[in-house]
Design a protein that fits this description.
single chain, alpha/beta, Rossmann fold, UDP-galactose 4-epimerase, domain 1, seven-stranded parallel beta sheet, 13 strands, about 40% helix
């Protein structure tokens, strides 16, 4: 049986669907909450209630488990010191409990460009979390991914919301030349599923991304086209944008942007284009071919609705 943490998140839902499609028996560990979990409908899954920082709860969740796919992280949160501490402590707890339980394999999701010496706390924490897995004694596979996108993501849909509320002009960091390598979330879910039976991925740190390098400016233009919201792109200094992101977090109950974005966009985030085809036999999808979901709603109006409801988007 496979334990998936973070199964109600953007990546977790895609991984759950793919694992069950391939016939794997899955358990997910949910944070105790009064709200119904946002699990994908029609997917059979065993459920335990525990936080990743609850050592006793994690141990109980690992009973009968042979593989852990650790996806719980800080994506979609504000990147506060508290959330970064939870990211680090939760991963350490999972890795140590997995070693004590005799888990046969642990998968960990990271980012291209993580480094303990990074100037950005989110990248430092991911690098430290990687080390917990490598030193746990449990056979591991660490996947460092490019920018992930897909329906219900925290990137393309949030940018579509910001574009939707922008009157004529849209500010972007610098000249928008930062290169990214967008990876469709379903391709990532497929790669994780196939890696379960691929011995060459054991005890490896693997960087994967989509099939093309795209500048942030090009991504913005794709999003504006797909969401039918043309705007004039206006270069802006990152410190001003960081201040704007901080202000939006303070003023809005559900801000579409957080400072982690600007950390991610500070440098190019690319890797070998051929890793997925060569290592997994998978040809990744182009971003432009998979963002038609952005044309399904008025994103500026959706942002407004989000501020007054706890309902999750379809």
């Amino acid at each position: 049986m496979i334990l998936v943490t973070g199964a109600t998140g953007f990546v977790g839902r895609a991984v759950l669907r793919r694992l069950t499609e391939f016939g794997f028996v899955v358990r997910t560990m949910l944070q105790p909450s009064s709200r119904s979990p946002a699990l994908p409908s029609g997917v059979p899954v065993d459920i335990t209630l525990a936080s990743v920082t609850d050592r006793r709860g994690v141990r109980a969740s690992l009973v009968g488990i042979d593989t852990v796919i650790h996806l719980a992280g800080i994506e979609g949160q504000g990147g506060s010191d508290h959330s970064l501490e939870l990211e680090e402590a939760g991963t350490q707890n999972i890795a140590e409990a997995a070693a004590e339980a005799g888990i046969q394999r642990i998968f960990f999701l990271s980012h291209i460009g993580v480094d303990r010496g990074s100037a950005y706390p989110s990248m430092q924490v991911k690098a430290i979390a990687e080390e917990y897995n490598r030193h746990s004694g449990v056979p591991y596979t660490i996947l460092r991914t490019g920018l992930l996108f897909g329906r219900q993501d925290n990137f393309t849909t949030s940018l579509a919301m910001l574009v939707g509320i922008s009157p004529l002009f849209f500010p972007m960091p610098g000249d928008g030349s930062t290169l990214l390598q967008p990876l469709w979330v379903d391709d990532l879910a497929t790669a994780i599923t196939w890696a379960l039976d691929e011995p060459s991925t054991v005890n490896k740190t693997i960087e994967i991304g989509g099939p093309e390098y795209i500048s942030f400016k090009q991504i913005l233009r794709m999003i504006m086209t797909a969401s039918s919201a043309p705007r004039i792109l206006l270069p802006a200094r990152p410190p001003y944008l960081r201040a704007g992101a901080w202000l939006m977090e303070k003023l809005l109950p559900h801000s579409p942007i957080n400072p982690l974005w600007l950390d991610y966009l500070a440098v190019d985030r690319t890797t070998d284009l051929n890793t997925l085809p060569h290592m997994f036999g998978l040809q990744p999808s182009r971003m432009e071919d998979k963002i038609d979901y952005l044309g399904e709603r008025n994103w500026g109006w959706d942002l407004l609705i989000r501020q007054f409801t706890d309902r999750r988007r379809d």
